[in-house]
């Protein structure tokens, strides 16, 4: 699904990613953990194609296609979803229209027919029901006056509607409370399927109590320094990153 080889990248002339090697097979959920400033968010931005991040070496393929050569919109159309970075508020824009526009952009790029308001409502209702989210969510302005938990629900809904092949979740700086962790986890767990992969980036072990990853990678100083199973996250919780650094 995702294959990263020797990836190096700079931000404002400073090398942040120093040779990332990482493979996420189809159907697997991998976690990336690491201390603050290790490059976790930079990696997610580079994968999403955000401006301002200069790739200086290495390669990334997404289902065999050169991801780094694709425009951000093409990445989304190919099934890449970057979650939880910008809970933008759009006063005056109805959430239903916002979600339908996002979905139709992806459908169009995939060569699928766009959904009209009625067709969208039908699809959205199914997803809402599966995720136990109130239908009121569709009627409000995008994120306007939403609580932290409601913003999470809305992003989970967006993710479920777009049905990505690979979801990248960067939770590091958002200081999620337990309720929000559960919402995100349930959303991700509901998508678990042979054709779905996720890269869950987190500073905290506790998210991984809810989303049990197939593999855990430790990112430090712009490199993956250790890879293990879910037990690695527990070990980090107990002995901290210093123990990994000593071993690396
Ligand atoms: P993490 O998500 O692991 O906390 P980041 O990827 O946010 O780490 O940051 C990694 C390093 O890159 C840090 O030293 C940070 O200061 C630096 N960095 C990130 N973004 C920028 C930027 N826009 N300009 C300059 N330095 C940046
Ligand atoms: Mg940080
Ligand atoms: Mg970060």
From TrEMBL:
It comes from the Bacteria. Keywords: ATP-binding, Nucleotide-binding. It holds the Pfam family ABC_tran. SUPFAM superfamilies: P-loop containing nucleoside triphosphate hydrolases (SSF52540). The keyword ATP-binding applies. One of its GO terms (molecular function) is ATP hydrolysis activity. Belongs to the ABC transporter superfamily. Ycf16 family. This is Fe-S cluster assembly ATPase SufC. The lineage of its organism: Bacteria, Pseudomonadati, Pseudomonadota, Alphaproteobacteria, Acetobacterales.
């Amino acid at each position: 699904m995702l294959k990263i080889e020797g990836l190096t990248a700079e931000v404002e002339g400073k090398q942040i990613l120093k040779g990332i090697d990482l493979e996420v097979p189809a159907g697997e959920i991998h976690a990336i953990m690491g201390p603050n400033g290790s490059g976790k968010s930079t990696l997610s931005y580079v994968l999403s194609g955000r401006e301002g991040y200069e790739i200086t070496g290495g390669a990334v393929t997404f289902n065999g296609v050169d991801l780094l050569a694709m425009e951000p919109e093409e990445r989304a159309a190919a099934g890449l979803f970057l979650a939880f970075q910008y809970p933008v508020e759009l006063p005056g824009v109805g959430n239903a229209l916002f979600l339908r526009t996002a979905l139709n952009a992806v459908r169009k790029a995939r060569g699928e027919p766009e959904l009209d308001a009625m067709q969208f409502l039908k699809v959205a209702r199914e997803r809402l029901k599966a995720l136990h989210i109130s239908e009121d969510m569709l009627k409000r302005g995008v994120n306007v006056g939403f609580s932290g938990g409601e913003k999470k629900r809305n992003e989970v809904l967006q993710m479920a509607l777009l049905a990505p092949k690979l979801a990248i979740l960067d939770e590091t700086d958002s200081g999620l409370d337990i309720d929000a962790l559960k919402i995100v986890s349930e959303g991700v767990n509901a998508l678990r399927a042979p054709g779905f992969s996720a890269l869950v980036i987190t500073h905290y072990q506790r998210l991984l109590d809810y989303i049990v990853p197939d593999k855990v990678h430790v990112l430090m100083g712009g490199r993956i320094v250790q890879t293990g199973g879910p037990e690695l996250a527990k070990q980090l919780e107990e002995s901290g990153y210093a123990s990994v650094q000593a071993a690396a």
